[in-house]
Amino acid sequence: MCGIVAYIGPREAYPILIKGLQRLEYRGYDSAGLVIANGGLNMYKTKGKVSDLVEYVKDQKTSGSIGIAHTRWATHGEPNQTNAHPHYSQSRKLAIIHNGIIENYSSLKEELIHRGYEFHSDTDTEVLVNLIEDIQTNEKVSLEEAVRIALNQVIGAYAIAILSVDSPDTIVAARKGSPLVIGIGKDDYFLASDATPIIEYTKNVVYLEDEEVAVLKRNEELKIRNIKNKELTPYIQELEWNLHELEKGGYEHFMMKEIYEQPRSIRDSMRGRLHAQEGTISLGGIIDYEQKLLHARRVIIIACGTSWHAGLVGEYLFEDIARVTVEVEYASEFRYRNPIIDEDDVVIAISQSGETADTLAAIELAKQRGATILGICNVVGSSIPRATHAGIYTHAGPEIGVASTKAFTAQVTILTLMALRLAELKGNIPKSRFMHLLAELENLPNHIEKSLNNRGIIQEIAKRFQDVSNFLYLGRGYNFPVALEGALKLKEISYIHAEGYPAAEMKHGPIALIDENMPVVFIAPKKGIYEKVVSNIQEVKARNGKIIAIVTEGDEHIKKIADYVIEIPETEEFLIPMLASIPLQKLAYHVAILRGCNVDQPRNLAKSVTVE
Ligand code: F6R
After folding, report:
1. Strands laid side by side in the 372-377 sheet
2. pLDDT at residue 431 above 80?
3. pLDDT tens readout for residues 194-232
4. 482 vs 164: CA distance, rounded Å
5. Is the distance from CB of 98 to CB of 160 less than 8 angstroms?
6. I want to staple 551 with a disulfide (CB 3.0 to 4.6 A). Which of 27, 151, 466, 555 is the partner?
């Protein structure tokens, strides 16, 4: 859950490391630090964000052309300067940065204490660096060899980079369960948790696999071995993303930029897959598994957070459009539930980052039991797509804001395409109706463009309710997951408590909360069981709750009852989740801004959750 950057080559390392950390700050931002090797290992670290590190280092000597840097999201030990990475070994001859958790660190630590090692931090990382030093000293082996031996004793997850005073032209890196990408420049190497710090310098990358150790040595070819000491040939790939996708592009925050990108990102998710004029859908990534999916005994969607909400929309889509039964599970529950699952089941794992630890563990469990695993993922080359049998990339582009926005609508787009493709294979929708559904889907980005213009009313609502302590979000059918997602967006970036509920469940409890101070957001398009939702609105009205309703353009009926309405264009019911979630993203954004919150980096959160 931390960010790693490292550099070795002819340039000054410091600016490359700092820029890289800034790009990775979405992964963690409670402390940051770096080491530059130049004679000795010069270490600077501080509590706070990368900007605090820059301030801290301001007047110090940072020259040198090899260095490692880290931005942290605390797991072991509170976020303070001592626990910040990098960490020295006891002799100060080694320095390490680490992302992940060493599960057996306390037994290793006890042994090292026994052998005279002293520890200054509460981290598992300091244990690892001393273990490596201990092996190097006792067994008189190279740094690479000591790392390899140490990693054979370690249980847990790691992405590490190590510098040594004795090998001043080398970085040793290794991974298991936490991502690492190596960028190969003309005469330099870059290393990072994802490709964003690298893309500016080179498009040629190697994704390190689990239990691989890489040696990045000045003026030498990249060397990779696995921890069993087998030499491997690096597989060089070309990056797809562009630099401009990583910039704010004139927006004040990444989150707003990403909200406004949605017409584009949804078009990209559909490109080459939706052929509305021909009335067909082609999903190349899962073509070999379509029959399996069609005849699966059960389809189980596993995911976390916002991706789980996308999965819930998927349940409605698959059942409604394709008549395929679906169960949706929190990956974190599924993995510990001893689920009944076998080779007749298909699991669809959804993840923006492709690194979520719970989702990865759930995939491994389902795989062990023989299920077919399909992935829906945004980050190309990340761990989840590599753990699945086949899958579909969402192509939403890099999502930097910690709160997921465009990734959600892209995931729902892919699930919609999958449901329609299954319906096409089954032939259970008359051709003319099928053609109409595809045309509506193709037109969705245009509807979104139109609805992105209603900024005025959303800002007014945000102003009116910025100081409340609670919000309720209600929806039915396809819009129940939208209510959950709207509530999640608000709570994670504004810190206002918000709950999403199926509107009809309100009378079984939450209705007790309603008084004149409670804003209730209804997702109430003129589709499905509209009249029932109107009744639920009346129930809130009768108790003086404040009603904010997402309605179909021109709905005069709800306008008369609600305090505020946000209009969305008329479309097919199955497309409303994508259309209706966007004003809710904007509402959360504006409330958070008015409350002075950091919308791109909300407290306690990080973009990829690589811990349990
Ligand atoms: C919410 C959010 C999180 C993620 C969750 C899963 O805005 O971003 O709830 O959706 O941590 O992450 P991925 O999709 O990367 O597996």
Report:
1. 326-330, 298-303, 345-351, 372-377, 390-393
2. yes
3. 888 999 999 999 999 999 999 999 999 999 999 999 999
4. 51
5. yes
6. 555
Of the candidates 2, 304, 377, 597, the residue annotated as catalytic is: 2
Distance CA(483)–CA(478), nearest Å, equals 10
Q: Assess whether the C-beta atom of 42 lies below 6 angstroms from ligand 1.
A: no
How far are the Cα atoms of 326, 328, 418 from residue 319, in angstroms, in the given order? Answer: 7, 12, 12
Mean pLDDT, the chain, rounded, equals 94
- What are the φ/ψ torsions at residue 96 (nearest 5 degrees)? -130, 150
Tokens of 565: 């309405």
Domains and CATH numbers, the chain: 2-239 (3.60.20.10), 249-452 (3.40.50.10490), 453-599 (3.40.50.10490)
44 Cα to the center of ligand 1, angstroms: 31
Q: How many other C-beta atoms can be found within 10 angstroms of the C-beta atom of residue 389? A: 17
Q: Is the CB of 305 under 6 A from ligand 1?
A: yes
**pLDDT over threshold 80, residue 489:** yes
74-80 own/partner pairs: CB under 8 Å, 24+ apart: 74/30, 74/31, 75/1, 75/101, 75/124, 75/611, 76/101, 76/105, 76/122, 76/123, 76/124, 76/125, 77/121, 77/122, 77/123, 78/122, 79/30, 79/31, 79/47, 80/31, 80/47
pLDDT over 80 at 512, yes or no: yes
DSSP-assigned letters across all residues of 570-582: ---GGGHHHHHHH
| Ligand 1 and 31: CB distance under 6 A | no
- φ/ψ region of 224 (left if φ > 0, alpha if ψ in -120 to 50, else beta) reads beta
* pLDDT tier, 381 (very low <50, low <70, confident <90, very high otherwise): confident
The strand pairing partners of 159, in sequence order, are: 99, 175
Give, for ligand 1, the residue of 73, 304, 399, 495 to mutate: max count of ligand atoms closer than 8 Å to Cβ. Answer: 304
Q: How far is ligand 1, taken at its centre, from the CA of residue 462, in Å?
A: 24
- The b/e string for 537-570 (b: 16+ C-beta within 10 A; e otherwise) is bebbbeeebbbbbbbbeebeebeebbebbbbbbe
Strand partners, 107: none
pTM of the entire structure? Answer: 0.83
Whether 2 is catalytic: yes
Residue 173 tokens read as: 């890196």
Tally of residues, the chain = 612
307 lines ligand 1 (CB under 6 A): yes
- Residue 66 in contact with residue 169, Cβ under 8 Å? yes
Max CA pair span of the chain: 81
